[in-house]
Amino acid sequence: MSTSMHDVSVPIFVNGLRNMSAWLDKAASEKPEAELLSGRLVPDMRALPAQYQMASDSAKNAVARLAGMEAPSMPDTETTFAELRERCARTISFVESVDPAALASSAEREVVLKLPNGTSYRFTGQAYLTGFALPNFFFHVTTAYAILRASGVTLGKPDFLRHLGPPTFGPDK
Predict the structure, then answer these.
(1) pLDDT greater at residue 83 or residue 173
(2) Which of 18, 97, 151, 164 is most buried by a 10 A CB count?
(3) Residues 6 and 103: beta-carbon distance below 8 Å
(4) Average pLDDT over residues 33-55
């Protein structure tokens, strides 16, 4: 049985975005929202909202590029936890709405990634997903996690892997 491009993209993006949304709930219960929204790891890094926006963009743009369609426009205007959670929800809704059949032949489809500075990369769909889209998505997911953690939010590995749920059996099984 082979693994489809849908299986190695959409569920992974959805799990990451759902986890990120849940981190905001935990963060809001522990720290002032305004303090966390301006959080960054180093001065030249973009703040927490941008990490959520770029994770969202990575997910929706990847699925759209692989499906050969336009991604929905989501201007980067979020300034509250509620707006960031809504951004995650809208991104999840979009990536889940893409028919798996639209991704079926995307492993060999050409994907051209044009960067704002005018340069570009040319990939096969599989190389794009595994070499750029997923690593870029997890860069921003991990950076958001690290900003919250460094700001004193009590996140741990179970929060990062929240999509797994509780263990299904004990240590003696």
Answers:
(1) 83
(2) 151
(3) yes
(4) 96
What the block records as the tokens of 152 is 């004193």
- Its pTM stands at 0.93
Mean pLDDT confidence for 151-164: 92
- 1 in a domain, yes or no? no
Check if the beta carbon of residue 39 is closer than 8 Å to that of residue 147.
yes
Report helix, strand or coil for 165: coil
Which pLDDT does position 173 carry in this prediction? 59
Please report whether residue 15 resides in a domain.
yes
Query: What's the length of the chain?
Result: 173
The residue range of the domain holding 110 is: 10-164
Q: How far is CA 36 from CA 14, 27, 47, 124, 153, in A?
A: 23, 8, 9, 38, 9
Q: Render 36-84 in DSSP notation, one character per residue.
A: HHT--SSTTSPPHHHHHHHHHHHHHHHHHHHHTSPPPP--S---SHHHH
Residue 2 inside a domain? The answer is: no
> Would you say residue 149 lies in a domain?
yes
